[in-house]
Design brief:
Layout: H1 38-43, H2 45-50, H3 54-63, H4 68-73, H5 79-89, H6 98-104, H7 108-113, H8 116-130, H9 135-156, H10 168-192, H11 204-212, H12 214-234, H13 238-271, H14 276-294, H15 298-321, H16 332-341, H17 345-365
């Protein structure tokens, strides 16, 4: 075999040129690093060792900011090609990852537990309706506490468990949106009429319907996680997975909207109330926010929930501020909206716009393979 002729290094620095054993005076020069993938392999060794296929490694690299352009610097055409080399070179544990086992494990008990928040909320609402006087606030408070505890326990595990990056402000935003769904429309209507002079009407149908919809929310999120994981295992590249996961996400959203609509329709028929559009928009908004947070994208969910809650709060504030001398124009936009479409138009508009924003974000980020691989 003949020796390669001398060539300058790619980074422009001189390389050591030891003489060949033949003593002919010719030298062999290393063209750049002998193993450009080695440093990357050690940096992501844990990811490579636990991966069950090259696409898992590609997803992990994608999550760490490695792009096709970056892969070209390692002499590969794309991230998947680079991941294939890492997968071939690093010894790994061939046991199925725990996260995948949890996704595919039987979940009959968990699926039944998803019904608890709706059941507890329905019992609490009925308890409030059947009591009066001083007992009603006590029953309502105890019911709210029981529902909060049950919902927290159900969401702590499962496909909608929030990641460590979840911010308290997102929880506060969600609580405000739910509180407004329970009594915001009545308060807004009373405020525009000059009140409230006492207790304003509450909406038990919306609260109960959203609580019952926790079950389809968990089931749909579980279905999406399982199906996405299977597509991740069977895809041969990041682009292929993205193309297959986006229709899956949209179909899952449509399935959840159907389940949510059934829950809200049932409760509104039971309590003979209205306000379907606002409740539906709020349910979709909360589900998308939780789904994004569960897959590690809590920042977008926090911003949108905060913006929606702040908009509803500002709308109420402008109505009361309009009573001040010279401040009547502040209340005109909300007054015109309510006169035209009713008090339920405000949450429908605000939550609907916020849900569309989160849906666009979910389509963009949940179609990535890295959203479905433990990092």
């Amino acid at each position: 075999m003949t020796d390669l002729p001398s060539a300058p290094a790619r980074d422009g620095r001189a390389q050591d040129t030891p003489a060949t054993p033949s003593g002919t005076g010719r030298t062999a020069v290393r063209r750049g690093p002998a193993d450009p993938v080695k440093a990357l392999m050690h940096r992501h060794r844990e990811l490579c060792e636990r991966a069950v296929d090259p696409l898992e490694i590609a997803a992990g690299l994608e999550a760490h900011g490695v792009t096709d352009r970056t892969a070209a610097r390692f002499r590969h055409r794309d991230v998947f090609s680079l991941a294939e080399e890492l997968y071939a070179r690093v010894p790994r544990d061939t046991q199925q990852p725990l996260s995948a086992q949890e996704l595919t494990a039987p979940s009959v008990g968990w699926a039944l537990r998803a019904l608890l928040p709706g059941t507890v909320c329905a019992v609490a609402v009925e308890g409030v309706r059947l009591t009066d006087g001083g007992a009603r606030p006590v029953v309502g408070t105890l019911g709210a506490i029981a529902f909060t505890v049950t919902l927290t326990l159900v969401l702590r595990r499962g496909p909608l468990r929030a990641g460590p990056g979840t911010r308290p402000v997102a929880v506060l935003g969600a609580v405000w949106l739910l509180a407004y769904a329970a009594g915001g429309d009545g308060l807004l209507d009373e405020a525009l009429r000059g009140g409230p002079d006492g207790a304003w009407p509450l909406d038990p149908a919306t609260v109960t319907g959203l609580a019952l919809a926790v079950a389809p929310a968990l089931w749909c999120a579980h279905l999406f996680s399982v199906r996405a994981r299977k597509k991740l295992d069977s895809s041969r590249g990041l682009a292929e997975f993205t193309g297959r996961s986006r229709p899956l996400l949209l179909a899952t959203v449509a399935l959840y909207i159907g389940g949510l609509a059934l829950c809200l329709t049932a409760t509104q028929l039971a309590y003979d109330t209205r306000g379907f559009a606002g409740a539906l928009a709020l349910g979709v908004l909360l589900w998308l926010a939780r789904l994004l947070a569960a897959h590690g994208f809590s920042a977008a969910a926090t911003k949108v929930l905060t913006a929606a809650a702040g908009t509803e709060l500002l709308a109420l504030a402008t109505v009361f501020a309009g009573r001040l001398p010279g401040c009547a124009p502040l209340a005109r936009p909300v007054d015109a909206l309510v006169r035209t479409w009713g008090p339920g138009a405000l949450p429908a508009l605000v939550c609907g716009a916020a849900a569309l924003a989160l849906l666009a974000r979910a389509v963009a980020v949940l179609a990535r393979a890295s959203a479905h691989v433990d990092q």
